[in-house]
Amino acid sequence: MRLFSKLPYLARILLIATVVALSVIISGILMMRFSTSNVPVQAKNSPTATTTVSAQPSLDTAALPTAIPTNTTPIEITRTTQVKKTTTSNQLAYGHFPYAQAERNQMMLIGSYASGADQRFEYLNTEAVQAFMKMTYAAREVGIWIIPVSGFRTIEQQQKLFQDQIKRRGSEKEAAKISAPAGYSEHHTGFALDLTDGKSPKKDITLAFENTDAYRWLTKHAQEFGFELSFTRNNKQGVSFEPWHWRYVGSANAAAIFANAKNQQ
Ligand SMILES: [Zn+2]
């Protein structure tokens, strides 16, 4: 500082000005480096963020936050060449109409069924979800608990179920009375679902469901919400009576999908 005070006044000013100018230049360089190094990081982040958003465009994330992680992983959409052939042929298989598998992103989580290792998540076509919720809430108002047991199914899932029925019943023909062959299930559309009575869960997917409050209520009121029983007693398709299996026909799209089956009734 002594040296500094000995300097002439003009030199002091010049020295201060040089120090200030240098610090401005250095900080400028540092800022430029900082901002350029950030650019690739932002660029890396933004596509991931947009993919996450666009992957779930139709889901009500606020209402069903848990639908996001469970939605994307468990159900794989697979189309086999065999199924394509059968769905375009429009021929019945043991009385069952062919149905194309709907897209996974058309589905919404409506509930889970069973617990522990058996727990599974059930999905319904977004077009039918609101009507289904309204129906279950209307039933709850009068003390009746309608529980979804099985909704949307992939062709692969149906293949497994049908093979299990063949093992149990001995032949494809016998299996087809209780379960549709893969590519022929109404469940592929996401507009059909199996229901049970929350007070008698052991009656799920059995004829005993016919003797529950839920079934009695559904036969009176399901129609008001756009739902109908697919396989009525002695139906013309020759499929066994399934009191638990209901389909949505309340939108133009859903009604068109089931038009062939409906005309048979
Ligand atoms: Zn069913």
Helix-strand topology string: HHHHEEHEHHEHEEHH
Classify the beta-strand content into a percent band: 5-15%
Sequence of strands across the biggest β-sheet? 3-4-6-5
CATH class of the largest domain: Alpha Beta
Low confidence ranges: 36-88
Distance between the amino and carboxyl termini: 105 Å
Looking at the structure, what is the overall shape?
elongated
- What is the C-alpha radius of gyration, as a whole number of Å? 31 Å
How many helices?
10
State mean pLDDT (0 to 100 scale): 79
Distinct small molecules bound, one entry per kind: zinc ion
Find the CATH topology of the largest domain. Answer: Muramoyl-pentapeptide Carboxypeptidase, domain 2
Report the biggest beta sheet as strand number plus sense, adding barrel if it closes.
4 strands, antiparallel
Number of structural domains? 2
Roughly how much helix do the residues carry, as a percent range?
40-55%
Structural class: alpha+beta
Gross CATH architecture of the largest domain = 2-Layer Sandwich
